[in-house]
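Reviewer 2 asked us to include a model.

Predict the structure of this chain.
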Amino acid sequence: SIAILLYLARKFKTPDHWYPTDLQKRARVDEYLSWQHVNIRGKGSKLFLTKVLLPLLTGQPPPPEKLEGVTEELNIVLKQFEEKFLQDKPFIAGSEISLADLVALVELMQPVGAGYNLFEERPKLAEWRRRVEEAVGKQLFQEAHEGILNAKNL
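Predicted model (structure tokens):
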């Protein structure tokens, strides 16, 4: 949860870039963390549920119109994310990775795990993903997402 991430960042005095002491940078992180619940998380999880979990439970594929609708909802918030949060910066809060970037990418990996490559036609988003992966380490990133990336194989 967001609350535990903020607690851990404060308790263990993590490097400043994760949750910046600079008020403007911290406000950007906080703004994203507040926005993402019903947007990136909400729409990404909805696509994952529709495309992976509901078919597992019902034994039926999702209705195409339902899948199309949830995909379009996700595409709308992805555009908002690129325009409002990424803009032309390397990371959400500026030139360094923060908790906002980490949370964002984790949430975006759910639709990827459902077989929807949302980075494919979004070069700005793909470049941001590459920078986040490099910042945390590619091996750690792969280990952390191994389960979700294999979910569609259930």
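The helical segments are 2-11, 23-35, 37-58, 64-86, 99-113, 123-136, 138-149. The chain has seven helices and no strands. We have added this to the supplementary material.
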